[in-house]
Write a structure and sequence with these properties.
The protein is α+β, with helices and mostly antiparallel strands. The protein contains 18 helices and 40 strands. Strand 18 and strand 19 form a beta hairpin. Helix 4 packs antiparallel against helix 5, helix 7 packs across helix 8 and helix 12 packs antiparallel against helix 13. The N and C termini lie far apart (84 Å). InterPro entries: ATP-grasp (IPR011761), BC-like_N (IPR005481), Biotin_BS (IPR001882), Biotin_carboxylase_complex (IPR050856), Biotin_carboxylation_dom (IPR011764), Biotin_COase_C (IPR005482), Biotin_lipoyl (IPR000089), CPAse_ATP-bd (IPR005479).
């Protein structure tokens, strides 16, 4: 076994590998970019080496610098994690040439499966079922459009070298094919350095089921059952579970055999995943093979009781597989939810910023949290915005689902927008609860997942006001006690003492009246409601409060004007409005014509001076390795673009000069 390994990755997976290595007594070396100098994986490792600037192409994708770090620190092997260089055959070959073990498959296996087109040809020879489509080398737009017409719409365009949903589009109509193809090719070139795509029949109501395989250097190969990854948005997985609901032993065996055949066809060694598209009738087709450890591997670990990273290390060290196929068994059910810094209500746009408050659920035998960040760390625009993976396990799916709901309700994140509430709504949908799964579940459940805004509960206003009063009292107590200006008791000449706090949440505004009571609490007036409130505010924002006859455990976390109120598994961004100050909205920038995050302009889609309809695509930004299209918010005239293709733009930058039709008409009338 190795005595020291280098982890050529960052974030959650780097921390995950360090945990297993430490348990096995293996020293670890972290590599990091300048932006990650104080990252959690750097803090956890035994050693750390800076390998370049923030951009991944100047650091985590620099195989030469990573190998230099391995040589300098005496690391015997390199674990690539997932993403970055994990499926780069040139890097695997460079490791072998340098005498450093690559903890992954041979370069030949990576190369065979790295091109989706070549992989499908290889799988056809191995007898693995394939989805109908065009997997050849010709890439002329007209030729690919003809193949799409022959296949029959809807079709799916996929980056041949891709993964993670990048460079992938569903196309329903011939007239949309050219634009979708161009976008896929741009995204594929940017993410993988290869614009090559393939076109396949889009299977209606498909499930995405993958098989975990493992091979050793002695010819052994097993499958560790399946994972259902059907719940996706933008072709990226959101929830994963194991075993797949409704899976029969016969179908599991058939898919397992096909996956092992696929692995053996390329001489596979280490952890790999064979992904299948499954029709409603149970027919399955090979989609791709990921020649690395998957993000969702923890659900397999939870149902088997195994440590797949340990298996990777042992196999890479030349040991045989720890178990035979007959010794493997499924125990219970596990579900994983990916916690991201993103705004589901704004098209899942990534959110950046500092994690001012991060309180995950308590871990135990049934709840696991894999994360690469801690409170105070920053989510930057340079990398994937994952905060954590939340994994739960119990003896069956209903119990595991109950665990997941409870754990999501305990999550508290402030400083960035997260998808926690979206996940709560998602796992509460009847479709997910009843395992009515397919890759379009999120689109099917739009009404439940994106409900109309509801009135803010009185208790939320009360908690926000109570926290403000508690905080001001603490500040007054820490100040000059002899000064009358340090007393915040709402004193008024010839009137009963009263404070008035102007608050706003979204578009709802309210002024809360507060009068001190004899017991040291407050009488709060919220609209027509009057209730007695008291509580104890902790330094981390936790608030143990009594509201009328109800006792609640909540949290109110301050970030500039915003007070993030956490109650009953939900969060509300309440703003304290300064009464003598204009604005005070405390929102993120609004409107569709500002940059939603830092990024680069990669395409201008409309002509300045023309009148466009609401929803017309105006420009495309690239950020966090994904494309984001900004559209016209209303009918109006596109006057000018403020940036050119290739320009870097900052968060909130005005990108377009745009005059809505009503405003333009008013201007014309005034001029007349």
């Amino acid at each position: 076994m190795f005595t020291k390994i280098l982890i050529a990755n960052r974030g959650e997976i780097a921390c995950r590998v360090i945990r297993t290595a430490r348990r096995l007594g293996i020293a670890t070396v972290a590599v990091h970019s300048e932006a990650d100098a104080n990252a959690r994986h750097v803090r956890l490792a035994d050693e750390a080496v800076c390998i370049g600037a923030a951009a991944a192409r100047e650091s985590y994708l620099r195989g030469d610098r990573i190998l230099e770090a391995a040589r300098a620190t005496g690391a015997q092997a390199i674990h690539p994690g997932y993403g970055f260089l994990s499926e780069n055959e040139d890097f695997a070959e460079a490791c072998a040439a340098a005498g450093v073990v690559f903890i992954g498959p041979p370069a030949g296996a990576i190369r065979a499966m790295g091109s989706k087109s070549a992989a499908k040809a290889l799988m056809a020879e191995a007898g693995v079922p394939l989805t109908p489509g065009y997997h050849g080398d010709r890439q002329e737009p007209d030729f690919l459009a003809e193949r799409a017409a022959e296949i029959g719409y809807p079709v799916l365009i996929k980056a041949s070298a891709g993964g993670g949903g990048k460079g992938m589009r569903r196309v329903d109509r011939p007239e949309d094919f050219a634009a979708a193809l161009a976008s896929c090719q741009r995204e594929a070139l940017n993410a993988f350095g290869d614009p090559h795509v393939l076109v396949e029949k889009y299977v209606l109501r498909p499930r995405h089921i993958e098989i975990q395989v493992f091979g050793d250097t002695l010819g052994g190969c097993v499958f560790l059952f399946e994972r259902d990854c059907s719940v996706q948005r933008r072709h990226q997985k959101v929830l994963e579970e194991a075993p797949a609901p409704g899976m029969t032993p016969e179908r599991r065996a058939a898919m397992g055999r096909a996956a092992v055949d696929a692995a053996r066809a390329v001489g596979y060694v280490g952890a790999g995943t064979v992904e299948f598209i499954v029709q409603p009738d149970g027919a399955f087709y090979f989609m791709e093979m990921n020649t690395r450890l998957q993000v969702e591997h923890p659900v397999t670990e939870m149902i088997t009781g195994l440590d797949l990273v340990e298996w990777q290390l042992r196999v890479a060290a030349g040991e045989p597989l720890p178990l035979t196929q007959e010794a493997l068994a499924i125990d219970g059910h596990a579900i994983e939810a990916r916690i991201y810094a993103e705004d589901a209500d704004k098209g899942f746009l990534p959110s950046t910023g500092r994690l001012l408050h991060l309180a995950p659920p308590l871990e135990g035998p049934h709840v696991r949290v894999d994360t690469g960040v801690e409170q105070g760390d920053e989510i930057t625009p340079h990398y994937d915005p994952m905060i954590a993976k939340l994994i739960v396990h119990d003896r069956d799916r209903p119990r595991a689902l109950a665990r997941l709901r409870a754990a999501l309700a305990q999550y508290r994140i402030a400083g960035v927008t997260s998808n926690v509430e979206f996940l709560q709504r998602l796992v509460a949908t009847p479709a997910f609860a009843q395992a009515d799964l397919d890759t379009a579940l999120i689109e099917r459940e739009q009404a439940l997942l994106f409900p109309a805004p509801q009135p803010v509960p009185d208790e939320v206003w009360a908690l926000a006001a109570l926290a403000e009063l508690q905080r001001e009292a603490a500040e007054a107590a820490a100040g000059d006690a002899a000064s009358p200006w340090s007393v915040a008791d709402g004193w008024r000449l010839n009137l009963a003492p009263e404070r008035r706090l102007a608050l706003r949440c979204g578009e709802q505004a309210l002024t809360v009246g507060a009068q001190p009571d004899a017991a040291g609490g407050w009488w709060l007036s919220i609209g027509d409601t009057r209730l007695q409130a008291s509580g104890r505010l902790g330094p981390d924002g936790t608030l143990a409060a009594r509201l009328g006859e109800r006792r609640v455990q909540a949290a109110v976390v301050v970030s500039a004007e915003r007070r993030q109120v956490f109650l009953d598994g939900r969060t509300w961004p309440v703003v304290r409005v300064a009464r003598l100050q204009a604005g005070g909205r405390g929102d993120e920038h609004g409107g569709g014509l500002k940059a939603p995050m830092p990024g680069k302009v990669i395409a201008l889609l409309a002509t300045p001076g023309t009148v466009v309809e609401a929803g017309t695509p105006l420009l495309v930004m690239e950020a966090m390795k994904m494309e984001h299209t900004l559209t016209a918010p209303a009918r109006g005239r596109l006057q000018a673009f403020r940036f050119a293709v290739g320009d870097q733009v900052s968060d909130g930058a005005e990108l377009v000069d745009f005059a809505a039709e009503a405003a333009e008409a008013a201007g014309t009338g005034a001029a007349a």
